[in-house]
Amino acid sequence: MxxxxxxxxxxxxxxxxxxxxxxxRNLARGIAYAARMAGNVALSYQRxxxxxxxxxxPAKYFxxxxxxxxxxxxDAEAARVxxxxxxxxxxxxxxxxxGVESWAWQGIQPVHLKLRPSGLLIVISKRNPDELIxxxxxxxxxxxxxxxxxxxxxxxxxxxxxxxxxxxxLGAIARVLPNVLSLDDVKKYLGSLDxxxxxxxxxxxxxxxxxxxxxxxxxxxxxYKYEPPHLPGWKDMMIGAAIPGLKPxxxxxxxxxxxxxxxxxVINFDKCIKCSLCWEYCPDSVFDVTPDGYFNxxxxxxxxxxxxxxVCPVPDTIIMVDxxxxxxxYGKFIDEYKAWKESKEAYRKWFESLLPKxxxxxxxxx
Amino acid sequence: MAQTEYxxxxxxxxxxxESAMVLRWVAKAAGPNTIVIGATGCMYVANTTYxxxxxxxxxxxxxxxxxxxxxxxxxxxxxxxxxxGKLPSEKINVIGICGDLGCADAGLSEVxxxxxxxxxxxxxxxxxxxSSANTDIQETTMTPFGALTTxxxxxxxxxxxxxxxxxxxxxxxxxxxPEIKYVATAMAADPIDxxxxxxxxxxIGGPTFIHTLDPCPKGWGYDPKYSHEIGKLAVETGLWxxxxxxxxxFRLTGTSARIASGEIKRKPVKEYISRQTRFKHxxxxxxxxxxxxxxxxWEKWLIPGLLxxxxxxxxxxxxxx
Lengths: 366, 321
Ligand SMILES: Cc1ncc(C[n+]2csc(CCOP(=O)(O)OP(=O)(O)O)c2C)c(N)n1
Ligand code: SF4
Ligand code: SF4
Ligand code: SF4
What we know:
The complex is a heterodimer.
Chain A: E1 8-16, H1 21-37, E2 41-46, E3 58-66, H2 71-78, E4 86-91, E5 115-125, H3 129-132, E6 143-149, H4 165-176, H5 183-191, H6 196-209, E7 211-216, E8 263-267, H7 277-281, E9 287-289, E10 295-297, H8 307-311, E11 318-322, H9 336-342, H10 344-354, E12 358-359
Helix pairs in contact in A: 1-4, 1-5, 4-5, 4-6, 5-6, 9-10
Chain B: H1 18-30, E1 34-39, H2 42-45, E2 59-62, H3 67-83, E3 93-99, H4 100-105, H5 108-114, E4 122-128, H6 169-176, E5 182-186, H7 191-204, E6 207-213, H8 217-220, H9 227-236, E7 243-246, E8 249-252, H10 254-260, H11 270-273, H12 284-299, E9 301-303, E10 307-310, H13 317-320
Parallel strand pairs in B: 1-2, 1-3, 3-4, 4-6, 5-6
Antiparallel strand pairs in B: 5-7, 7-8, 9-10
Bound molecules: thiamine diphosphate and iron/sulfur cluster (3 copies).
Cofactor (chain A): [4Fe-4S] cluster
Pfam family, one (chain A): Fer4_21
InterPro entries (chain A): 4Fe4S_Fe-S-bd, 4Fe4S_Fe_S_CS, PorD_KorD, Pyrv_flavodox_OxRed_cen
């Protein structure tokens, strides 16, 4: 860890690539502008290693704010891939709590890996902190989990949903980090934009009633231990930086990509007609063919695109369900086929309980 | 069909990436005796994520525009080594894979040059996401009329930055290199058609070329679950004719053949355009223009999708007198 420069405050914004990119950027800029309007120096930047962003991949923005420091000190802070630690992490999509896997060399990282002891983990979610803690690995230092109540906001590369998320987060920051941005600072910034009163009201609403806090003690949470995979350094690499290849049907063990999904497919094997379309059309080769001809998703590799559910010809046989309905994760996922084989009755009940929570796919086919 | 995967899971492409789907099916069709050469682009950066890979085939990264030379070099080396008895004589497929920028723009001269090397056997596959997608969606010559890219945003002064029509790559390769035995267009939304075309290309020998149109949820702006549907719509609206030219014989395939025979009607291009946010700024007039261009291709061209000369070749006025 580097020596901390006094008076410097670092916030990271963790979001899903492309879907939430404009939201993350506008929020990062908003925090930096608000801090500057309040007389501080501040800047925001995107994590280099996450560029080029891919649909669904966890990605990061950073904001550095300093009271009294020079622009040069801030520039130096930003001249690196990412800070060693942050004072607050803002998670725009609660399903990212289940792990961050950006590149192979990092493995599946805990969402709060960079959070300083006693820092703040601010999550946009419709769940309360006690529910969210079930998805977050334990730490050996305390932190505060803050929920800014709200829906997941998903746009895409060319669109931004101005649905109040930026204002809600700013309101939450004013509530839990008044020493960084006060409510007056937030109001001043929002007042400088279009539709000022509407924006200020949204922030006020979050400030007054939409924030829930919970102190998390050391050891609370999932028992997941973060171990980055051992990948060779340049001295160990083969000549010409050759990479050892895979064997046929062997998935890349170092990079699963399973943390890129906010929905997952759940299969009703009772209804499956073994047509093989899901297997055929999955761009990520996720389905294993079982000896009796069913198709079982290796969820650690699934990116949650929803294509399998879309192409399945039998209604409600593959449904896409919010990741937050499942307490597995961090690289270990339910084996759906195995669960079904073990007890078809229990599986059927479980599947039916998920149906009302499923994203409706292929309405056209009904 | 082979169940074995030679391009397997564990790559960093987007949710619903059709280019990844193309590679999966090309690898399946080619089988284990294959060397793949990939140019810089999404299919390089996302598939070899820091010293790991999703390939179970020997795969070589070549520079962005280097596909043609690397492929000829590899095919020639294999041939020489086999003739000298240094390698057992067997069939090894050589496949060069490049994006639209790496193939139709930056790498065009090398790809074209490679396709004149009739002594060697290889396939060049151009996966076309209609942008330079890896570097965050920039315009290429393959970007369609009107599409938003980071280089062609819609502004207040100039509403449509990309006003030029998309280049006709498969046609150029077929017509410009008369000795090549196989050229085809394909897409991931019809993987069986793609599979068959790859097998044909590899079996026929000599240089061959396949151009796939790959919906890209990131750059085109749609929910990834619709990837295949968008691909199918490109064919159903007539925008993307599926064809193959085998030993000089042209044949429309799949849905495109059924459109040509009158069995099914082309859908309006609006059904395709309106599903993608990269076209969100287009007006009805713009869409009508695209429709007219597509109609022209189907109704007037000598061969739909391939030969833009019109059926009624204009006779020079001066020659009449
Ligand atoms: C000579 C050169 N110029 C620029 C780059 C930067 N670059 C890396 S990937 C890429 C885009 C390639 O686009 P395309 O071939 O269409 O493939 P896609 O990214 O769409 O898969 C560019 C421009 C490079 N690697 N080499
Ligand atoms: S959602 Fe379905 S099609 Fe998409 S990656 Fe997961 S298993 Fe494959
Ligand atoms: S697409 Fe649906 S019906 Fe067909 S094999 Fe997959 S789950 Fe079964
Ligand atoms: S940007 Fe497009 S081509 Fe590149 S990985 Fe994503 S979907 Fe695939």
